[in-house]
Amino acid sequence: MEPEQGWERLGEAFAEARRAAGLTQVEVADRLSVTRTPIQAIERGRQANGSAFTKVTATMRAYARLLGWTEDSPARILRGDEPEPATQPVSQADATSGLPSAVDRELRSGKTLDHAVVHLGGEGDDDTRIIVLLKGAEDMTEEQIDELWQTWRRTRRHLQAIPVESDNPQES
Question: So what's the pLDDT on residue 93?
């Protein structure tokens, strides 16, 4: 199968599954916290600027999850296989985690490599904190992970150096 035909086949599979689920492109876009443009591009099999896609994107993986497919289903379709049903499809209840949908989508995508919790609260405030997750693509090479890890180590040191005490000067 020609590479361009694979992207078109993937787009057709997304569109067909979306219609079977009774969803419009606008509804899919809303649930994935994107505009309609990337959904149209995915279903057309070409990027919004008309260029061919070169890799499966996070939006494609999120779209697959929304349709009840596994995250690797887009790659399977590109190889000429059928999408694989997820063992636990994303239900509407799962999508309402209480987090903004863009954050929820990011948490579900990719591979979690590390995390940091930085407590910002002063005396008597144990609840104010920043939570940072280091995420990477599912198919990262060891070399890419090592490079990312070095950058993360420097960034984490800066985060952990955030002072706990107030930035406001004490009145005397």
Answer: 40
